[in-house]
Amino acid sequence: xxxxxxxxxxxxxAEDAAxxxxxxxxxxxxxxxxxxxxxxxxxxxxxxxxxFKLPGLELMALNGGPEFAFTPAASFxxxxxxxxxxDALWKALSPGGKVLMELQKYPxxxxxxxxSDKYGLSWQLFLGGRETRVTPFxxxxxxxxxxxxxxxxxxxxxxxxxxxxxxxxxxxxxxHARFTLGGQQFMAMESNLExxxxxxxxxxxxVDCKTQEEVDTLWEKxxxxxxxxxxxxxxxxxxxxxxxVPSVLMQLLxxxxxARSQAAMRAMLQMRKLDIKALEAAANGA
Length: 286
Prior knowledge:
By secondary structure, this protein is α+β, with helices and mostly antiparallel strands. The protein folds into 2 domains: 4-69 and 200-283, 2,3-Dihydroxybiphenyl 1,2-Dioxygenase, domain 1 (Roll); 74-190, Signal recognition particle alu RNA binding heterodimer, srp9/1 (2-Layer Sandwich), CATH 3.30.720.110. Helix content is 24%, strand content 38%. It is built from 7 helices and 16 strands. It has helices at 14-24, 83-93, 148-156, 212-223, 247-253, 258-269, 276-283, and strands at residues 4-10, 29-35, 47-54, 57-63, 74-80, 98-106, 109-116, 122-127, 133-140, 163-170, 173-181, 184-190, 203-209, 227-228, 233-235, 241-246. The strands form 2 sheets. The protein has an 8-stranded mixed beta sheet, with helices on both faces. Strands 6-7-8-5-9-12-11-10 form an 8-stranded mixed beta sheet, covered by helices on one side. Helix 6 (258-269) runs antiparallel to helix 7.
């Protein structure tokens, strides 16, 4: 499993969205699909979570309800090899969506466009890549403007195989940054223009933790200046949402015994920071 995975919050459309996205890129696929059981909190039988792969990226999606909606603060940057590929993706993602930057020539690309699809998820399509690749892209605006470099250095200090690889500035701040966290590539920029949107829980970063010590350490460091939420969720000091999740939880939720998986689910729903021993004890009926 990828160490850090983008986690997308949908209302009821997670499966439909994943089917659309995986249909657009050769080699993509949908992986594990988990459904709500008697323990809730969603309708029994409805898709709860699923995993899917796009070029260079593994993602997770949840049907969590209408509480959160995507914003352009978190998007996916798609590096394309050909104009034909850019045009095909734009055509497929446009229906029911919204154009954020028109698809055309810009100083930084022979062809580029930014849009939100019908589910509200944002995509940046860029002509000029050596290979097709999908990269999570974070845009710091409002209260977070001017904090890109600080955030990237802080996050990189928390995970092995992490580094800031590129940091380009102009008079307005960091216009382009490329960095790696836990072996996964990300991109970022900041804008001092006025925007009505910022980061929220619709887009979070799911961290697969092997031990309770790792859970505890990341929880302490990422909630410093941020805030705790429920079920392993938190917001850090930059407003970015994270899920700090022990690997054992996913194993328990996928247990062949409905009683064990539902007991683990009920226990998780009562927790803020996740506790491996308590989750295992719940699954074992203790």
